[in-house]
Q: What sequence folds into this?
């Protein structure tokens, strides 16, 4: 096939980029190594846009949350990922969670049916000389990673990312657990397993003492991403750490006692049928046998059957503030753009968002003009700014979108009103940017 642009990687970022460019009228070659005989330590299928760690796009509140705000901005830009997520969402309170299998199938079906996209199941080991977007994610193949390192003159940065277990719903003891969302916000969308003080103390002790998967020598100095910290690593930080993290009981009245429990384990629906439930915040590197033993000490999970146990994988990303320009082009080889988690953004929606804006930049360049970056007051612009120059190159680490990446507000806003002020300002800036962005017909 002759093509106008090559996209390497069929995850959320690559799929979004392919869709945006194809909808703009360009011929796209989308290379994905899964399905060619190669895979990764974390993926289970050959579907495009497979969600590995969780089924949640996190908060969908565009009034008070930066993640919900970027959802809104992506919808306004015709995001395939957001359209597919909305179509296959499952109950999750104020969060946007999806049936991950149906979601990936939807994206795959849509991409493969597009007349402007050719999906090629192949592994790419070298940097191309034609227009390309590399969106290979945190599990980039070793040869391509070596080629990137060779071109940039830098070793790849890396961190560990952990996966949470999934439980069969019919194995949860609902005589002990109950359904509710924190502060009753969003409906009774979570299964809550209560622990008293003695149960909590024993559980934390078991996590700390449990047998973990060993590291290879080359992995021992790799840090964890704070937003995906293994449960046992958090437990090692102090006996009360989990009660102020994923096991926080605040706002959860146990209907059997009328009080908040000492600690709680929450599970979130993972598929549309409601048969699979994800242990929220329970990413882990415990050995599989230890996971079963320890997690079955949680009240309500005494007889839990696990559809998937937790795991850990190594994520790689480039030092984007040093290596990329403001349009996500590799400074030393500008025919190549990077998008998604390999740029050092963190999270499903952030990865897709960078794929979307990377495609928009490529679209403009292929047409022979330029595209102004989204303003830094917007969620999309703030995230883009962080990975293309806003972060310190010496200490650069993956980051989720958050209000701290945006220019600060003036001092007249009270703390209670600041989140809404950020989102109001962002919407105004985003609308103005859209009005100034030229609308072009398909190429």
A:
């Amino acid at each position: 096939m002759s093509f106008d642009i090559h996209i390497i990687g069929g995850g959320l970022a690559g799929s979004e980029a392919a869709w945006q460019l194809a909808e703009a009228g360009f011929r796209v070659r989308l290379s994905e190594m899964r399905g060619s005989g190669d895979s990764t330590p974390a993926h289970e299928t050959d579907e495009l846009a497979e969600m590995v760690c969780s089924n949640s796009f996190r908060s969908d509140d565009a009034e008070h949350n930066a993640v919900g705000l970027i959802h809104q901005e992506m919808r306004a830009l015709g995001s395939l990922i957001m359209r597919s997520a909305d179509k296959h969402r499952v109950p999750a309170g104020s969060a946007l969670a999806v049936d991950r299998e149906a979601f990936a199938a939807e994206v795959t079906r849509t991409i493969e049916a597009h007349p402007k996209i050719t999906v090629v199941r192949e592994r790419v080991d070298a940097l191309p000389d034609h227009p390309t977007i590399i969106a290979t994610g945190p599990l980039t193949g070793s040869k391509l990673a070596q080629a990137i390192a060779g071109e940039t003159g830098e070793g790849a940065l890396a961190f560990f990312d952990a996966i949470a277990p999934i439980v069969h719903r019919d194995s949860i003891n609902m005589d002990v657990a109950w359904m509710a969302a924190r502060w009753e916000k969003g409906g009774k969308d979570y299964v809550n397993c209560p622990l008293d003080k003695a149960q909590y103390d024993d559980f934390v002790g078991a996590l700390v003492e449990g047998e973990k998967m060993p590291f290879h020598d080359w992995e021992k100095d790799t840090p964890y991403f704070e937003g995906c910290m293994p449960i046992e690593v958090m437990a090692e930080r102090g006996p009360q750490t989990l009660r102020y993290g994923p096991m926080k009981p605040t706002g959860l009245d146990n209907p059997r006692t009328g009080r908040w429990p000492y600690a709680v384990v929450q599970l979130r629906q993972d598929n549309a049928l409601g048969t699979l439930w994800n242990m929220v915040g329970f990413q882990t590197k415990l050995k599989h046998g230890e996971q079963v033993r320890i997690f079955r000490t949680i009240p309500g999970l005494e007889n839990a059957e696990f559809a998937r146990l937790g795991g850990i994988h190594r994520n790689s990303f480039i030092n984007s503030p040093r290596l990329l320009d403001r349009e996500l082009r590799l400074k030393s080889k500008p025919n190549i753009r990077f998008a998604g988690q390999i740029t050092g953004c963190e999270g499903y929606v952030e990865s897709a968002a960078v794929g979307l804006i990377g495609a928009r930049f490529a679209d403009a360049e292929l047409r022979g003009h330029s595209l102004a970056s989204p303003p830094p007051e917007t969620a999309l612009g703030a995230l883009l700014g962080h990975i293309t120059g806003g972060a310190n190159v010496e200490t650069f680490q993956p980051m989720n979108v958050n209000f701290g990446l945006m220019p600060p507000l003036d001092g007249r806003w009270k703390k209670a009103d600041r989140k809404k002020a950020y989102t109001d300002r962002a919407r105004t800036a985003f609308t103005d940017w859209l009005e100034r962005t030229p609308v072009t017909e398909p190429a």
About this structure: The longest strand covers residues 157-163. Residues 70 and 276 are 28 Å apart (CA to CA).
